[in-house]
Design brief:
The chain folds into two domains: 7-97; 115-341, Intergrase catalytic core (hpI Integrase, Chain A). 48% of the residues lie in helices and 2% in strands. The chain contains 13 helices and two strands. β1 (178-181) and β2 (190-193) form a beta hairpin. The two termini are 30 Å apart. The model is unreliable at 317-341 (pLDDT under 50).
């Protein structure tokens, strides 16, 4: 357990509740959660405690309100507030679970559902042509090899950014095409199957990587050091490929992001089922499992969206009651929802 939380993190904590914060993060990591960005918010919360509540032994109403006030400064967006409040809400639940009565911070800020950028065929062709044209410029850099493959995998499977970044070699069966996803939202383990074309691409990529990084453990890497790609680096790579293209300069809102691949995959599946004459409502559970949704409400959102994008399928889908469409605040993904902090 000693390796689950770095000494740098531990040494940055100064409040009277620092041991509880350390134990909370250790439990998160032990349960399989990468919890990548949340530690910096825990540090900010610890600093607030140290400054304003030096003797705090639990999260009181006063502390909860102070945190909400703190994260709402500088006219940040409602979505940012929700992202910042989430780890402290979880910390409060953790304290309650170990017998320390605590108030769970609440915000009146309404979460605004980010709109989907629906990728066109022209945009897809331009993006992957650009990805395939990346030059090999820096010694030890494998971006020109990895980027075309990792983004094709995201597009063809709907996998999330953390899921592809944390794949290990042992998670990928290049014989059967099965991928075992461990680092998933809500940390649900699941298995998906890639297409034959994608499997060929991944086999070729693996052959190259075996030469570049012998005995590697991480499947995708941008450098020859066998380290997983960081969230920031993958996002930077995406924009480096896309932002300079003429297609990216077209006035279109919302802008294309990595998450657009996931939207595209979900809608493509639904439309394909419609063209094949399948009962979309009856096989909805397959999409729930494949995409790693925690419940049907998330998948229902995509079905509702498909009705708007493809008007011709409306009559084939039983109307989705607005009451079962997802409460987006309950499915916010810190690694996918755009925010300004």
């Amino acid at each position: 357990m000693a390796n689950l939380v770095s000494d740098k993190f531990k040494n940055s904590l100064k409040s009277s509740m620092k041991e509880h914060i350390i134990n909370f993060l250790e439990r998160k990591r032990l349960s399989g959660s990468p919890y990548e960005r949340q530690p910096e918010r825990l540090i900010a919360f610890d600093s607030l405690l140290a400054e304003f509540f030096p003797n705090a032994v639990s999260i009181t109403s006063e502390i909860a309100d102070k945190w909400v006030e703190f994260i709402s400064q500088n006219n940040v967006s409602n979505n940012t507030i929700h992202v910042r409040i989430a780890p402290i809400r979880e910390f409060a639940r953790y304290l309650n679970s170990i017998g320390i009565p605590s108030v769970i911070p609440e915000t009146k800020a309404k979460f605004i559902k980010p709109e989907c950028h629906l990728i066109t065929e022209q945009e897809l062709k331009a993006f992957f042509k650009s990805a395939d044209s990346i030059k090999h410029t820096k010694k030890g850099s494998l971006i020109y090899i990895t980027a075309p493959v990792i983004f094709r995998l995201m597009y063809s499977t709907g996998m999330r950014s953390p899921e592809v970044r944390h794949l290990t070699v042992s998670d990928v069966n290049l014989t059967t095409g099965k991928i075992f996803i461990r680092e998933s939202k809500a940390h649900q383990l699941r298995v998906i199957l890639v297409s034959d074309d994608m499997l060929k691409v991944m086999r070729h990529y693996d052959e190259i990587m075996q030469q570049a990084v012998p005995n590697r453990k991480i499947f995708f890497s941008f450098h020859n050091n066998d380290r997983s790609i960081s969230r920031a680096n993958l996002n930077y790579c995406f924009h480096d490929i896309w932002d300079h293209l003429p297609e990216a300069t077209v006035e279109k809102s919302p802008k294309m992001t990595m998450r657009s691949f996931r939207h595209c995959f979900a809608l493509s599946c639904i439309y394909k089922w419609y063209k094949e004459g399948k009962n979309i409502n009856a096989i909805e559970d397959y999409l729930v499992c494949y995409m790693g949704h925690s419940d049907f409400r998330q998948t229902s959102y995509y079905i509702h969206l498909a009705e708007m994008v493809y008007p011709e399928i409306r009559d084939s889908i039983h109307r989705i009651n607005d009451g079962i469409l997802p409460d987006i605040t309950s499915i916010v993904d810190d690694d996918e929802v755009p925010y300004d902090a």
